Amino acid sequence: MGQKGSSGLFRAVSAFGVVGFVRFLEGYYIVLITKRRKMADIGGHAIYKIEDTNMIYIPNDSVRITHPDEARYLRIFQNVDLSSNFYFSYSYDLSHSLQYNLTVLRMPLEMLKSETTQTHQESFDIFEDEGLITQGGSGR
To answer: Which residue numbers delimit the SAC domain (predicted)?
Structure first.
């Protein structure tokens, strides 16, 4: 930790990704993936398991205003074991099911484009089903 470069900047930490940001009483922390293990390949997409993480306080320590409960909150948060059963991929959407992702992958590009433009062009009237009159509409 702390390799100095020729530009005067130094590397604080190497990371494979960002888990997220968390804020406690003294400010924000960034949670980084510092160790990963490749677990699988799905359709040519690598799936990784988080092996280790690191929390870094974002504001400079020189401007840190200490709070007596900060250490307790940090301990509680660090009890969440992000290295057990947390997975990620740089190119595969793990938030959808395999079936959904395969359906999207098999869809012809033309269908995806037309589907995307249709959803952006279509408009709907939330009052239409209620039989209410809206501007430009007649109601039922």
So the answer is: 16-105
Distance between CA atoms of residues 61 and 5, nearest Å: 22
Tokens read off for 42: 């799905």
Q: Which residues contact 25 (CB under 8 A, 6 or more apart)?
A: 67, 69, 70, 73
> Which helix or strand (DSSP H or E) is residue 45 part of?
strand 45-57
Q: Which helix (H) or strand (E) holds 72?
A: helix 70-78
Which of 79, 92, 77, 86 minimizes the C-alpha distance to 37? 86
Within-domain flag for 83: yes
Q: Total domain count for the chain?
A: 1
Residue 131 lies in a domain: no
Residue among 30, 12, 33, 29 at smallest CA distance from 86: 33
Residue 103 located in a structural domain: yes
The predicted model scores a pTM of 0.62
Q: Is the pLDDT of residue 139 over 90?
A: no
Range of the domain at 27: 17-116
How many residues does the structure list for the chain?
A: 140
**Within-domain flag for 5:** no
